[in-house]
């Protein structure tokens, strides 16, 4: 029989430190009104010194496993742009700290689309029979790569982690991941980037430039490209699922900017009140944003069993994607 990946558990975490718009306004040329109007963000969470992406990933992973009622999986996939080290990958350490010694684990780097790319990897492993269960995590400490003087990025990004447990099941049961469609265009690599730290810089023969150590984003171009690619991939995945736009009960989009999420909903013809939003509270958490929103939506009742859910994201690379599933009866760990 056809195997499908079924969502069996969800968990999320954020660091304890809250940074409000008012606090940012004390240090940058900005204001609470400016940030809220342009992004919809009121606050974000930021790691304290010594707290790593791996720390957040472990906590979110443990909570997802608790939600699924299990302590073991056959594979761990971690989506992150802010790994603990350039080498090795962070996933093996996360797996070991959770107690999954010997389990294969690897990182996926697709920036804000990372969770969907990791979800595809986990679902494919289950569909192919290579795993019966997979822990998929999105975790970021974006505060560690932001320019302290750049209000356009400091105001947007926050830290956090979210995770889901997938198990083998049937395509028609609640929680089954129905379809996933992904895309990329490397010609847009400079839209969202950290230029320094890689082989491009190290083999250039030029001394490192301090500004290249920080995250940069072409905001206006990203806005229009994100709306277009998220809308296109959403329509494609809906068609492959056999759903009409009117069938969608909830959109859980990458929490990039409230205007982007609303614009995608408008382009699709879905009422904006069907979008699950938590960006006002956590900011843009890149690869962690979709699983964080899933956990929040399940916790406060915005996601209910039987809801037909559309996931979509756009990130650096450029990368993008969308997925469909019917929400199961799960309680966040």
UniProtKB/TrEMBL annotation:
Record's catalysed reaction(s): 3-methylbutanoyl-CoA + malonyl-[ACP] + H(+) = 5-methyl-3-oxohexanoyl-[ACP] + CO2 + CoA; (2S)-2-methylbutanoyl-CoA + malonyl-[ACP] + H(+) = (4S)-4-methyl-3-oxohexanoyl-[ACP] + CO2 + CoA; 2-methylpropanoyl-CoA + malonyl-[ACP] + H(+) = 4-methyl-3-oxopentanoyl-[ACP] + CO2 + CoA; malonyl-[ACP] + acetyl-CoA + H(+) = 3-oxobutanoyl-[ACP] + CO2 + CoA
Active site: 112, 254, 284
GO molecular function, one term: 3-oxoacyl-[acyl-carrier-protein] synthase activity
Keyword Isomerase recorded: no
GO biological process terms, semicolon-separated: fatty acid biosynthetic process; secondary metabolite biosynthetic process
Keyword Acyltransferase on entry: yes
Enzyme class of the recorded protein, top EC level: transferase
Beta-ketoacyl-[acyl-carrier-protein] synthase III C-terminal domain boundaries: 238-327
Known pathway: Lipid metabolism; fatty acid biosynthesis
InterPro entries recorded: ACP_syn_III_C, ACP_syn_III_N, FabH, Thiolase-like
One Pfam short name: ACP_syn_III_C
Keywords annotated in UniProt: Acyltransferase, Cytoplasm, Fatty acid biosynthesis, Fatty acid metabolism, Lipid biosynthesis, Lipid metabolism, Multifunctional enzyme, Transferase
EC assignment: 2.3.1.180
Region (ACP-binding) residue spans: 255-259
Location of the Beta-ketoacyl-[acyl-carrier-protein] synthase III N-terminal domain: 106-186
Location of the protein in the cell: Cytoplasm
Chief location of this protein within or outside the cell: cytoplasm
This protein's GO CC annotations: cytoplasm
Known function: Catalyzes the condensation reaction of fatty acid synthesis by the addition to an acyl acceptor of two carbons from malonyl-ACP. Catalyzes the first condensation reaction which initiates fatty acid synthesis and may therefore play a role in governing the total rate of fatty acid production. Possesses both acetoacetyl-ACP synthase and acetyl transacylase activities. Its substrate specificity determines the biosynthesis of branched-chain and/or straight-chain of fatty acids.
Free-text note regarding domains: The last Arg residue of the ACP-binding site is essential for the weak association between ACP/AcpP and FabH.
Family per similarity comment: Belongs to the thiolase-like superfamily. FabH family.
Summary of subunit composition and partner proteins: Homodimer.
This protein's name: Beta-ketoacyl-[acyl-carrier-protein] synthase III
Species, as recorded: Kitasatospora aureofaciens
């Amino acid at each position: 029989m056809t195997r499908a990946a079924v969502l069996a558990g969800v968990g999320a975490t954020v660091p304890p430190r809250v940074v409000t718009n008012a606090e940012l306004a004390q240090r940058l040329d900005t204001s609470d009104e400016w940030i809220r109007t342009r992004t919809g963000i009121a606050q974000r969470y930021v790691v304290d010194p010594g707290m790593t992406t791996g720390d957040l990933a472990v906590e979110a992973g443990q909570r997802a496993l608790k939600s699924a009622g299990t302590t073991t999986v056959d594979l761990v996939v971690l989506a992150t742009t802010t790994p603990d080290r350039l080498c090795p990958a962070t996933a093996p350490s996360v797996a070991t700290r959770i107690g999954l010694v010997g389990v294969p684990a690897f990182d996926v780097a697709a920036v804000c689309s990372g969770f969907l790319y990791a979800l595809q990897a986990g679902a494919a492993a289950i569909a192919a029979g290579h795993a019966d269960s997979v822990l998929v995590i999105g975790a970021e400490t974006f505060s560690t790569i932001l320019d302290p003087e750049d209000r356009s990025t400091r105001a947007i990004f926050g830290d956090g982690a979210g995770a889901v447990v997938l198990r083998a099941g049937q395509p028609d049961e609640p929680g089954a991941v129905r379809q996933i469609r992904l895309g990329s265009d490397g010609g847009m690599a400079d839209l969202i980037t950290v230029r320094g730290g890689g082989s491009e810089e190290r083999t250039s023969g030029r001394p490192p430039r301090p500004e290249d150590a920080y995250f940069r984003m072409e905001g206006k171009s990203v806005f229009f490209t994100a709306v277009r690619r998220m809308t296109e991939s959403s329509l494609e995945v809906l068609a492959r699922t056999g759903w009409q736009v009117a069938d969608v009960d909830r959109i859980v989009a990458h929490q990039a900017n409230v205007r982007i999420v609303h614009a995608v909903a408008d382009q699709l013809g879905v009422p904006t009140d069907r979008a699950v939003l938590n960006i006002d509270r956590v900011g843009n958490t890149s690869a962690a944003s979709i699983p964080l929103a899933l956990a929040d939506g399940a916790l406060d009742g915005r996601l209910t069993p039987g809801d037909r859910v559309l996931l979509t994201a756009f990130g650096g690379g450029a990368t993008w994607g969308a997925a469909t599933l019917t929400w199961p009866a799960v309680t966040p760990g």
